[in-house]
Amino acid sequence: MKIGIDLGGSHIGVGLINKDKILDSKQRNFVDSDKKNIKKSIVKYAIAMIEEIMKEGNLDKNQIELIGIASPGIISNNTIIKATNLSLSEFCLCQEIEEKLGMKVQIRNDAKCAGLAEKKYGSLKKYKDAVFICIGTGIGGAVFMNNKLLEPLRYEGFEIGHMIIEKNGRQCSCGKKGCFQAYASIKALKERVTKILGERGDVSGQYLRENLLIKDNKQVQKEVEDFLNYLKIGIGNLIDIFEPEAICLGGSFAYYEGNPILDRLLKKIEEKDTKFSVGKVPDIVIAKYKNDAGIIGATL
Ligand SMILES: [Zn+2]
Fold first, then answer.
1. Domain for residue 149, yes or no?
2. Residue 292 in contact with residue 250, Cβ under 8 Å?
3. If you measure from the C-alpha of residue 50 to the centroid of ligand 1, how many angstroms do you get, rounded to a whole number?
4. 176 Cα: distance to centroid of ligand 1 (angstroms)
């Protein structure tokens, strides 16, 4: 058995994992006071939840093979170098947990973790060449060629959310302008649509999905159309660069399975002007594990 930790912009989740099964899990949302010393809060919650899960399962250290962490941002040498949505830099989370619990801890970028889970157990299992796109707060990616996760030597690479798709475009949290994720992440869509709807504060994913379908709100419909067009451009770029057999859409966008908005995207991708490549459009599949892919993949 292994323990997976999913670190997000606003929450931390810890799960007891056996292959692709989550046997037990705990969640904690960060409140404003946690953010004042976010490093300390993350370590405190992670350790408390790991200990709780082990106690409940009557487990001792020797029964846990590994603790794996899926974290947003740039990871190198088991350290979070930079995670802009957590306002973190140079954070040795693994070392802190290792020292306190005396167990082996590994960390990797969350989109790579989620991609690994889908490749090993989920929607990408039968494909050799595939691209995983995690569409949520930002946009992350993982690329597989001949069944292997592509990994640069120094950092994680494949930061597909920060490829520029609009010159002098919208400001991205990374400092650049016109990044893919400033147009085609769920966060970007949510921010624009909730403003039109006059909502204050955060709304649920379900509320957003339902409101995107209200046809008589022309402003909302324009935002949905723009969002889908930018997603199509980004996906078309990835098809031309990697020529994958399949593209898997994950993150909170995976919850659009069965929603007419996903059907509209699939139709757009089939259009002639999506790609240069002569091959047929890759299979577009939805992440089997949806938002759980990260916590499962953290153990891989
Ligand atoms: Zn960016």
1. yes
2. no
3. 33
4. 5
